[in-house]
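Structural prep section.
Before we set up the soaks we want a predicted structure of the protein with flavin-adenine dinucleotide in place, mainly to decide which crystallisation condition to try first. Input record follows.
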Amino acid sequence: LAEKKVLIVYAHQSAGSFSAAAKEAAVEVLKSKDCSVEVSDLYAMKFKATATAEDITGEVKNSEHFRYAEETKLAWDEGRLSADITEEQRKLQEADLIIFQFPMYWFTVPAILKGWFDRVLTLGFAYTKEKRYSNGIFKKTKALLSFTTGSQETMFSPTGINGDMNVTLWPLQNGILHYCGFQVLAPQIFWAPEDATPEGRSAMLAAWSTRLVWVWEVSHLCLWTAHIHSRN
Ligand SMILES: Cc1cc2nc3c(=O)[nH]c(=O)nc-3n(C[C@H](O)[C@H](O)[C@H](O)COP(=O)(O)OP(=O)(O)OC[C@H]3O[C@@H](n4cnc5c(N)ncnc54)[C@H](O)[C@@H]3O)c2cc1C
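Run finished without errors. Recording the tokens verbatim:
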């Protein structure tokens, strides 16, 4: 196997968090499998979350009616996107697998990670009208949402008070990742680590490490769509 490259986009404020432990476990196991691993630690980077004209170096085309997608497309063509966006795009382009590690906030990702999606996945670079979904630009790249919750699993079942987790994840997995072509692997969900026993938390981390040992070999069996269909 050629060396695989993994990008972990990590969004937690605290190095003592369970999310940090999940990120560290991934780094360790993937490196032991001879993968090269890069981590974008968004809070440590103070990653800018808002999509604004400051993301473009030099003149914008229409400052009176600034349109983010069109302006960033032009800037990307001309190599005038801001340095932080360009750097994340380089990491993403080189990756065979991208893992997003975050605590669920309001049924979705924390704002800083939403900002990463808004600012890094620009028109032209990550998608066009012709290149999306199964014809998408990142169709050779695997993507995986790995996240912690405050809720127990039963609360996110189809009959639970929060409703079906697969529905909750549709905007992220379909609207963002699959839209850009990514092969979306089944999500890794760490249910309510705050309420788990120390043994329970260790077991969750061990299961994650084991999954990652086999992530290249069996990923075709772990596609998110297969996961949804198996539940229906
Ligand atoms: C704004 C906001 C919105 C939210 N919205 C939602 C929502 O929509 N749905 C929902 O379900 N939840 C929601 N939550 C809750 C949130 O998702 C959880 O609090 C979070 O996911 C818990 O993960 P953590 O990494 O922060 O855990 P932590 O609190 O950091 O960790 C949990 C426990 O794990 C321990 N731990 C740390 N490292 C290790 C290790 N190496 N081994 C074993 N144990 C370890 C910690 O000491 C701690 O006791 C929300 C929270 C906020 C702040």
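Observations: The radius of gyration is 18 Å.
Flagged for discussion at group meeting.
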